[in-house]
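Hi,

Apologies if this is the wrong queue. I'm a grad student, and the batch job for PP2C family protein-serine/threonine phosphatase from Mariniradius sediminis produced an output file that my downstream script rejects. I'm not sure whether the problem is my script or the file. Here is the sequence I used:
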Amino acid sequence: MEKSIVKYQRKELELKALLEITQAINENKPAAVLLDIFKFTCLVHLNIRSILLYMVNQDHFEKRISHGVKNKVPDIISDRKVHYDKDSGQLHIEVEAPYSFSELENYLPVFHKEKMLAILFLKKKEEKEDLDLDFTQALTNIMVVALENKRFAKRQLEQERLRKEVEIASNVQRMLFPAVLPDSQKMRAKVTYIPHSTVGGDYYDLIQPSEEEVFFCIADVSGKGMPAALLMSNFQAALRTLLRSTRDLKMIVEQLNYTIYDNTKGERFITFFLGHYHFKNRTLQYVNAGHNPAVLCWEGEQRSENLGAGTTVIGAFEVLPFLETGQRSHLTNFTVHLYTDGLTERFNKAEEPYGDERFMQFVRKKLCIDPHRFHELFFKELEQFAESSEQTDDVTLLSIRFQ
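Support response: The file is valid. Your script probably expects a header line. Output copied below for reference.
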């Protein structure tokens, strides 16, 4: 009779413990609250004196509950040091002095499918009364799986939030590029922009302050992803502001360098090519700030040249160490190709880059053809060279034909 009463009382306590845990889970309590309720339940309603709980976190087990443990135990255990034999039910954890689990009599591994999620160490209160390990393990399973689901849901929400932020950044970045490029007998332009990821670090622009002149540029920011995109948007805003107030390329580049250096303190830089063509004067001025030289194709003379005059990259130095502007005069029928290094650094399966020389050879064979046709033929050749190998950087090519 006495044993029946004790058994009944134990079942009543176990039922209370189960109700408290499930109620906390249903109310979506924070993880810290769930762990406190679980610890309190084990110590008050079950015959447990000492409790130690480790839960998996990526590639290690992290201590989440420790009560009544006298020995020194580690806060983190690498999953490579935890060995459990399901056939024998033996658990072995590689620890060195001063760490020890010897005082804890029982351990309960918690699995979900084939993955071990947690390890619960226990020591009972009274020597006469045994622990109901089956119930304790069931209760632990409920709590651990609930915490794992909560962690998974949080991670999913964070990934969704990040995806939306990247999508917004991508949309904002697309707004930085010109919506329409000129397509007339006087000036015809074509751009091909292939970002490596959703948000790229390349920038191109074509701005016509008046009927008699046009600015065109291309830029590439160091790094990738959101930081690169944010810096590039700041750069674009500064450039457009400067172009509204001056035509002096030297002043524009110096002010851009000051702005970028002030924002990044030299930790990031931008390569940049800026050109300015005046239709009436037939004069091209340009500055190349550490970028791949633009290629100028002379239609009448059937030749091409690299436009390299300028300075070093923007943002690396507080004051540019040198700066010169290049100029070409008496230009009528000509084409300019501007590109980023993602184009010439496209690799094939043998890990050979496409390279500047191959690009120049292609330009010489296709001097001053229509920009749309040039892009069609060039990117067909580039894809054949790459042999479907993975793209590793943003690729941008801007071609402008003046007649």
